[in-house]
Amino acid sequence: MSRATRPDGVAGQHDDYYYHAYLLHNRFHFAKNVPAHSLVVKREYSPRCTRLAQRGRVADALMGIVFIITIFGIVVLHELGHALAARRYGIRTRDITLLPIGGVARLERMPEDPRQELVVALAGPAVNVALAAALLFLVLPTMQFDQLGRVHVFGGTFLLNLFLVNVWMAAFNLIPAFPMDGGRVLRALLAMRFDYVRATQVAAGIGQFLALGFVVAGLLLPNPFLLFIALFVWLGAAGEASMVQMKNALGGIPIRQVMITNYQTLAPNDPLSRAVEHILAGFQQDFPVVDGDRVVGVLTRADLLAALAQRGTDALVGEVMQRDFMTADPAEMAETVFNRLQECNCHSLPVVQNGRLIGILTADNVGEFLMIQAALRKATPPKLQFSGT
């Protein structure tokens, strides 16, 4: 099939395209009685252009995958910034979790000093600012200002895209709303003037107000991602406020006042059927395993169910129980033990005094104690009455 000159008369340009005149035998011969204006011209990709386009699409896809992996690497560096700052104040990081919308560095605790919390909260965005500054130095000579604000996952300038991602990540995390870093920065600044609980309540209220703004913006634009962010911010603010109130309510209260004293125990030689009987007869889920007066293990409900499915009710408790477990002392403060309960990711802790089991602390029991305390605080104090003479 012959190559034709472009219809606009410009020859020799865009040689990767063929222009075919569909007339008799696909030749450039005009049939009789066929007017010149009836010439049909069709544009088709050449095999070479098709191969180049396919290679381009594959290259863009590979670069997109590399770009996404790099973004997750930036998120890890952001969370490591928090972890290293917290380590400076003697606070360990339990783990770093990557989520579709970011990451979470789970610290053992937040710093009690507002200035330390401010440093830890700003450490993550500071990593993004530093990366953005380094990338700006590399892309500034070739950057076109009309490219700012547009991030291309597939295609585009790789380093410029990373620069924009770091700028966006730093700005987004500094929004003054929990659970973003900006919410903790705001709380730290407020805590320098108010008590910690009040500062958290104010910061959580501002965060929930911003969440309502995200809802309005998400409905007007419309943008489902803004609605998702609004839900994320609202729940994060409510959770942070609730956690701080719980710790404040438990402060100064010995665990002896919170622990369960009416409980069931098991022996290592008891069959699992005995644990089943205790569960069905009451509300206890985890059972301390006692050999004499000494606690030697804990049988959790999850381990019990797994063992029942694999071994049946005749298996012994000592074969299934957890031998590595944490305990609490009755003189310890409830806030400290509650943090330990969260750290071990377990449902209950045996309370031991002088090697002897005297109680159990469970998350459910802590919740019930807090509800009772909240109800008592709402009670109207009795009025004083004076008898006249």
What do you see in this structure?
- With 389 residues, this protein is of the alpha+beta class.
- 51% of the residues lie in helices and 12% in strands.
- The N and C termini lie far apart (125 Å).
- The protein has 11 helices and 8 strands.
- It folds into 3 domains: 1-45, no CATH class; 51-250, no CATH class; 256-372, Roll (CBS-domain), CATH 3.10.580.10.
- Helix 1 (47-88) packs antiparallel against helix 2 (114-139), helix 1 (47-88) runs parallel beside helix 3 (158-173) and helix 2 packs across helix 4 (181-191).
- The strands form 4 sheets. It has a two-stranded antiparallel ribbon with strand order 1-2. A two-stranded antiparallel ribbon has the order 3-4. The chain has a two-stranded antiparallel ribbon with strand order 5-6.
- The longest helix has 42 residues, at 47-88.
Strand order of the largest sheet: 1-2
Cα-based radius of gyration, to the nearest Å: 34 Å
The first-to-last residue Cα distance is: 125 Å
Question: Major β-sheet, in short?
Answer: 2 strands, antiparallel
Beta-strand residue percentage? 5-15%
Order of helices and strands: EEHEEHHHHHHEEHHHEEH
Number of domains: 3
Q: Which shape, going by the Cα principal axes? A: globular
